[in-house]
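Work package 3, deliverable 3.1, input record:
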Amino acid sequence: MSRPDPDPARRNERSRRAILGAALELLAETGYRDLSVEAIAARAGVGKQTIYRWWRGKGAVILDALVDQLTRAGDPALPDTGDLRADLRGMLRATVAEFADPRLSATTRALTIETLSDDDLAGQVRDRLLRPQLTAVRTRLESARRAGQVRPDVDLDQAVELLFGPLYHRWLLRNGPLTDDYADGIVDLTVTAIG
Amino acid sequence: MSRPDPDPARRNERSRRAILGAALELLAETGYRDLSVEAIAARAGVGKQTIYRWWRGKGAVILDALVDQLTRAGDPALPDTGDLRADLRGMLRATVAEFADPRLSATTRALTIETLSDDDLAGQVRDRLLRPQLTAVRTRLESARRAGQVRPDVDLDQAVELLFGPLYHRWLLRNGPLTDDYADGIVDLTVTAIG
Amino acid sequence: MSRPDPDPARRNERSRRAILGAALELLAETGYRDLSVEAIAARAGVGKQTIYRWWRGKGAVILDALVDQLTRAGDPALPDTGDLRADLRGMLRATVAEFADPRLSATTRALTIETLSDDDLAGQVRDRLLRPQLTAVRTRLESARRAGQVRPDVDLDQAVELLFGPLYHRWLLRNGPLTDDYADGIVDLTVTAIG
Amino acid sequence: MSRPDPDPARRNERSRRAILGAALELLAETGYRDLSVEAIAARAGVGKQTIYRWWRGKGAVILDALVDQLTRAGDPALPDTGDLRADLRGMLRATVAEFADPRLSATTRALTIETLSDDDLAGQVRDRLLRPQLTAVRTRLESARRAGQVRPDVDLDQAVELLFGPLYHRWLLRNGPLTDDYADGIVDLTVTAIG
DNA sequence: CCCTAAACGAGACGGTACGTCACGTCTTGGT
DNA sequence: ACCAAGACGTGACGTACCGTCTCGTTTAGGG
């Protein structure tokens, strides 16, 4: 006896943007702890129902906000200069920089929390945010394999995780500084492992 | 104008155990979403104040519960058979098994959530839970380095993270299955990277 | 800057009837508490705006519904058999019966509630529902006065209220049963009072 | 699976008074339409839950507030000067004055509304507010009957309603002015009816 | 008989209040 | 003093309706 799905064609684009914008603002300003649907609605000048009509909760809003932001940021493809080590270093340094930026970091942190107690959302995050990024790296590794820079028996998905895993681990658990040197070290180890 | 610290000597051990036990039970039964201080108190047959008197919040309770559990599980030291690859495989397979066990997994998940918005707690988790585990592995790697199985220029902390990071990444983001094969693959890549 | 009045000539009679019917149905089925413009619209298969276009709110709808119903019921005139007591008894017994009928009772109850916080509506109810009924009785009393059955100094409006007031009081406050005997008793007292 | 009843012994008297006071203030200031549990809680400096813990809704709060007020006002007994007509006139004039006072009137109005869609509350109102008042009048009539001023066959309850009913009717339906003259007229008719 | 302006169904919108839940603090009485 | 119990002020939750406001789509009357 649940409501029928609302009609996306009638959706108010102005409200949608206001909500996503307000969510990002509040996250940056006050952190995840103080982020509430109520606050987002108030900041966006929107009724709460308008949020609940289109999203399952604040987690879903943050996801959309982040996807929106990244979509605007554009192409996740890695450069392919032929120098695998250099290309990966550039990519991982950029990722480190993102994790170090409090603004982006807050969003990712918030999303991770939601993800941990919402399997549905976790799937969405995996598919819409994570996979594209991982795939971009994998594509670069495939090119490297064709160039003979990677052993043919290496599982490329594992290789990708070898790059991101340690970084993610260190960030989440605050188990050490996130620097360019750290990124370079991970790349070196990975290249050695698969080369 | 805060209350003086309570006297730990007069602490009721029965209550402490009941609280930690109730926390673990509820986590296993209903998941983190429905875990509340109120529920823990009710289940433990304890006043809420007794929880707040000794812990800062449910995050701290979970941490203590997990530390308690692991302490009972005993020594985290790795075996040292001389065969680095085999020793690491055993360790990582055990870790994979832990992450796959819903009971332990739920606790870790909950703790990770709390950690993400409580720096204090994050430090505690790092020092009391994470570091001992990482150190145990690092100790094994140092032994391997002395045996000439690891290049002298390798940063052993990074090496440790090369083992746990991918696993943690995959678990948190549900980005693939957690199997013994997967553990073995990570170990192989890591050994190649540092050997 | 308000909308121009809608053109009554173009009004959809089918919708009007559906709305009034739905209102009465819902009142009878679920009571006043659960009566909402939204529910009326849904039940009537009508847009909410169609209700707000023609009525000021649910109170006005109920009023119209009741007027409609009573209009169909027809002429409120009292018989004049010459026997004042008998005529009044007949009238008051009928009124008691109305108040005892759950269907009519629910409507009246709802209308009374709306009336209590809407002066506009109160006036409408007084003029369109109440006055005709009271006037009919007053007319009968005037006839009785001409026949010398009523003292010339009696305020007939007060006399009318002497009949309806106790009944209304008892009904609203559930201060006793509403029976034919009760109606007869009121009539007897009133006739004594004015005779 | 409902909460156990709260323990009245631990009830905070300060909060109780603040809530009842705030309810009466808001009723007088803004009328019933704008009276909300939320507003009462805010005005009283009290959590909403504290209201819902002890009352079923705003209707019950108003009832308690009114009972409290009347209890403080004290003895509802009528004087018994031996002059029935005079005693009743005094009483009915006072009642008219109450209905004419916007402050008291607002409370009664609000209570009547709630009463109409809550049978439980209606019973409470009848027993705690209405009955004592009616009984006081009935007691005076009994005294008058013993004095031979009232016919022995008159149903005294009906006689009481003969006094209050017309007044209540006129007040609720705004069917004419509420003046001392009106009160006197009702008393005269009633005395004639029962004398 | 067609045109066009309205009324229409549907329902999204910014709001307000609902009644519930859990937070972390405070109070009471019991051991 | 610590405890079990639970009332308290606080504030967010997710829902229900309010009355207003678009959306296409009938529909009815004047040209």
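The domain at 76-194 of chain A is CATH 1.10.357.10 (Tetracycline Repressor; domain 2).
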